[in-house]
Amino acid sequence: MEYLFHVVVIISIYAVLASSLDLIAGHAGLVSVSHAAFYGLGAYMAALVTVYFRAHFLLGMLAGITVVVAASLVVSLPSLRLRDDYFAIATFAFQLILSNLLNDWVTVTRGALGISGIPRPVIFGWEPRSNLEFAALGLSLVAVAHVVVGRLTTSPFGRVLRAIREDEVFAQSLGKDTLRFKVTVFGIAAMLASCAGALYAHYMTYIDATSFTLNESMLVLSMVIIGGAGSRWGPLFGAAVLVIIPEALRFVGFPGPLAAKLRQLSYGGLLVFMLMVRPRGLVGRYGFGR
Amino acid sequence: MRNGAHLRCDDVVKTFDGVRALAGVSFKFAPSGITAIIGPNGAGKTTLLNVLTGFLRPDGGHCFLGDLEITHLRPHQIARLGVARTFQDLRLVLQATVLDNVMLARPLQRGERLLAALLRLGVSKQEASNRERAMDLLGFVGLEGMGQDLSSELSYGQQKLLTLACCLATEAQVLLLDEPVAGVHPEMASRILNLLRHLRDAGKLVVFVEHDMRFVRELADAVIAMDDGKVIAQGAPRDVLERPEIIEAYVA
Amino acid sequence: MQTFADSVLNASWIMLVATGFALIYRCARFFHIAHGAVFTGAAYFMFSLTHWLALPVSVAAPLAVVLGSLLGCEMEICVFRPLRRQHASSLVGLLASLGVYIVVQSTLSTIFGDDTKTVRTAGVAEGLLLAGARITSVQIVTFLLSVVVVSSVAILLRTTRIGMLIRAVANDPELSVVHGVENDRTILLAFALGSALASLAGILVALDVDMTPSMGLNPILLAVVAVIIGGADSTVGIALASLLIGVARHGAVLCLGSEWQDATSFTLLLVVLLVRPRGLLGRPRQAVGA
Questions:
Q1: What are phi and psi of B178, to 5 degrees?
Q2: Residue A61, SS3 per DSSP
C-alpha cells in the first residue's frame, strides 16, 4: 500500500512537470529541453534553504521560485526572438550547463555527495509523514498546477499563446506583444517546475545532480509528446504511463538500474516513433511541426 | 487609434543582399479613402508594406503616423496605433475557429494579462462583448453562422474574408491589404471590393496592393505606381493609369 | 602554457565534431544532436573491436570510424529521411535527433554499463614536456589529425564534384522535390562524411581520456556553440570558434574554477544569439518575405 502511494507521489511530481512543460511546448509551441534544470533548481534551493539555513519550507519554495524566474529570464530573453529550434538549442545548452554546475560546484551543492537530511515540510502545523500524506500533498500540487495551466489556456491569454504557436507574425500584426507572452509563460512553467522540485526534495529527503539531467528533461518532454501536447489530460496521462513502465518492469523482476535504462530506451524510441507517425500523441490536439 | 492622422514615409530605403528593394520612397497617404499601390513583381510593394508595419527595418528614411515617428517601432506597437494589415500569403490561426480568430484580433483584452487571466477578473464580461462585436463583423463580411467552423476548412476566398474581419476587429483606422482579391473567384472579389467601399465610406484609409487594373480604376481614389523600388507616379487613377511609362512598366 | 595546450587540444576535437555537424546541418537543415551519439558509438565500436575481436588499435580505429559513419547513415535512412518526406520542420528533426541520441546512449549503457571503459594499451601516459606543457602522443595526433582532416574537408567542398553537390543542396532553399533523389543521396553523403568526423573525434578522445556512454553530450553542445558562433558555412569560422571555446573554457577553469567552464560556453552562445546580425526571427515559413 505504501508502495502504491509512493508511485502516486512520483506520478504527481511528473504530472506537474509535464503540465507546466505542456503549457509552453504544447500551447505556445516553445519546445524546451531544460525543464529538469528548473526542477533541479527548485529542489536544490528548497534543500539548501531548509538544511543550511534551517528556514521554513515555504521560504525554500519561495527561494526556488525566485531563482528560477531569474534563470528563466537569462535563457528566454536572448533566445525567444529566435526560431523555435534555436530556442530549443538554447534550452539544451542551459540544461547541460546547469547539470554540470550542480555536479561540479561542490562547495555549494556538495557535488556527487548530494544534500541529505532534507526536513519534511511543515504546512500550517501539518507535517506529512507517511506516503499517503505525501500523496495527498502531491495531488494537491497537481490540482494547483492543473488549475493554473487550465486558467491560462482557456482564457484570452491562451488564445494568444496558440496564435503564437501557429503564426507568430499574424499575432504580432494584431497588436500582440508576442515576446512578452513567451517570456511570461516560460517563467510560469519554470516556477511550477521548481515547486515540483521542492516537493521532490522534501519527499526524498536526499537529492543529487543525477536526478536533474538532460535525460530527465527529455523524459518530461516525452511525457508531453506521448501523452498529447496541448490537451487538458494528455500530460497527466503521459506522466502516468511513463512512470508506471519502469515500476511495472521492476515488478516483473528487472533490477532497478536496468529498469531505468530500459525505460529510457523505450521513451526515446517512443518519442521518435511518435514524431514520425503520430505527432499528435495519444490524446493530444496539437501535432508538432506540421 | 489615431483618427485622421496621416500615414507617410520619407525617403525610405531598404536593401537586401545588395539589391535595393526600396530606393528612396516618399509618399503621404490621405487620412481616409482608398489608395492603390500598383507595380510589376519586384517593384517593392510588399516591402513597403512590411516597412510601414514594422516587420522590416528600413536602412534609411523615416515613417510617420501623424506626428509620431514609427520607423523603429515593432510590429505589434504599430498595430496598436491603429494600423492593420493582411499578408500576401494568407495568415491565420488555421487550427482555431473562425470566431476565435476574430476575437483574437480584438484590442485591449483584459484576459490577455497574466493576473486577470489567472484570477478571471472581469474577463467574461469583456469576452461577451467582444464575442458580440466579432459576430457583427462576421456578419458584415458575409461569414455569419460560420463562427464555430475551423478556419482551415474555409475556402480560400472565405479565409480572405476572415482576415478582413480580423483587421476590422482591431478597430484600426488604417488598413494595409496585400493583394486582397488575388486568387479568389470574381464573385468573391466583388464582395470584398464592396466591403472596401463601405470602409471608405466609414472614414477609414484602405491601402491595397493590386495587379488588376480594373479594380484599381473602379475603386481607388489615389494610385501609387512603383517600379524598381521607386515611386514612378502618383495621383488620381485616370491620370496615373493613362501614363505611357506606367503602361510600359507593366508590359515590359 | 599548459592551459594553452589544453585549449588547443580541446579546440581540435571540437572542430572535428563541429565541422561534421555543420556539414549535416547545411544539407539536412536541422540540429542533429544524435551526432553526439555517433561520437560515443564510434568509441564503443573501437572498444568492442579491440576487446572482443582483439584487433590492434591501428586496425580497430579506422574500422570504428567506418562503423560510426554507417551508424550516422542509418539514422538518416531510418529516421530523418522519412521525416523529410513528411515535410517535418527543423524542430521536429531536432527532437527526433534527441530521441535517437537517447536510444543510442541507453543502448550503450545497457550493453556496456555506465562505468568507464578504456582502450588505452599502455597505462596512463605521462606525455612529453614541450615548452612547459605536458602533451601526450595521442594529443599530438589528435591535433594534427583534426587540422589535416578539417582542411581536407574544406578543400573537398571547394574543389571536388561531391563538394559542389553538397554546397548546392546546402544553398537550395526549397530542397526541390524535382531533384529529390539527388538531394537524398547528397544528404546521405553529408551524414556519412559528418559522422565519420564525429567518429574520429570520439575515438581520439577515448584514446586520450577513456569512455562512458554519456561522453558525447558535452562535445555535441560545444560543437553546436562553435557552429552557431562560427557560422555553419565557414570552415575557418568554425575553427576559430572552436579555438575561442577551448580558450574560454580553460581560461574559466584557471580564473573561476572548473565548475564554470561550461557556463562560459553558454554565455558565449547567448551573447552571439543576442548580437547576431543576421535575422533569425520566426520559423522559416513565418519569416516575412521581401
A1: -95, 105
A2: helix
Write the DSSP string, C21-59. Answer: HHHHHHHH-S--TTHHHHHHHHHHHHHHHHHHS---HHH
Give dist(CA A186, CA A189) in Å, integer.
Answer: 5
Show the cell assigned to A193: 517546475
Domain count, chain A: 1
Return d(Cα B47, Cα B55) in angstroms, integer.
Answer: 9
DSSP B146: -
Domain carrying residue C45: 12-121+135-215
HSE-CB for A187 with a 13 A CA cutoff: 16
Angle at A70 (CA atoms; ends A26, C98), nearest 5 degrees: 40
Instruction: Characterise C103 by phi-psi region: left (phi > 0), alpha (psi -120 to 50), beta (else).
Output: alpha
C112 in A contact zone (CB under 8 Å): no
The domain at B1-82+172-187+197-252 falls in which architecture? 3-Layer(aba) Sandwich (3.40)
Q: How many CB atoms lie within 10 A of CB A185?
A: 28
C113 and chain A in contact, CB less than 8 A:
no
Residue A275 included in any domain: no
Identify the closest residue of chain C to B15 by CA–CA distance.
C290
| Helix B156-169 / helix B123-141 crossing angle, nearest 10 deg | 130
Neighbors of chain A with 3 or more C-beta pairs under 8 Å: B, C
Q: Which residues neighbour B8 within 8 Å (Cβ) at sequence distance 6 or greater?
A: B26, B27, B28, B29, B63, B64
Q: Is residue C280 part of a domain?
A: no
Domain membership of residue A95 as a residue range: 2-211
Contact between A131 and A2 (Cβ < 8 Å): yes
Q: Domain total for chain C? A: 1
Find, among B121, B136, B110, B77, the residue nearest to A156 by Cα.
Answer: B110
A167 contact residues in B (CB cutoff 8 A)? 91-93
Q: Residue count of chain B, please give it.
A: 252
Per residue of chain A (290 residues), what is the pLDDT tens digit?
788 899 999 999 999 999 999 999 999 999 999 999 999 999 999 999 998 888 888 899 999 999 999 999 999 988 888 888 889 988 998 998 899 889 888 888 888 888 888 888 888 778 888 888 899 999 999 999 999 999 999 999 999 999 999 899 999 999 999 999 999 999 999 999 999 999 999 999 999 898 999 989 999 999 998 888 888 899 999 999 999 988 888 778 777 778 888 888 988 998 899 888 876 665 566 666 54
Is the distance from CB of C5 to CB of C135 less than 8 angstroms? yes
Residue spans per domain, chain B: 1-82+172-187+197-252, 92-171
Per this entry, what is the length of chain A? 290
Q: Is there a domain that residue C108 lies in?
A: yes
| Contact (CB<8Å) C288/B56 | yes
B46 touches C at CB < 8 Å: yes
* ipTM score: 0.93
Sign, CA torsion A107/A108/A114/A120: positive
The answer as to whether C47 is a domain residue is yes
Whose cell is 536602412? That residue is: B59
Residue C47 to residue C57: CA distance in whole angstroms? 9
d(CA C230, CA A177): 31
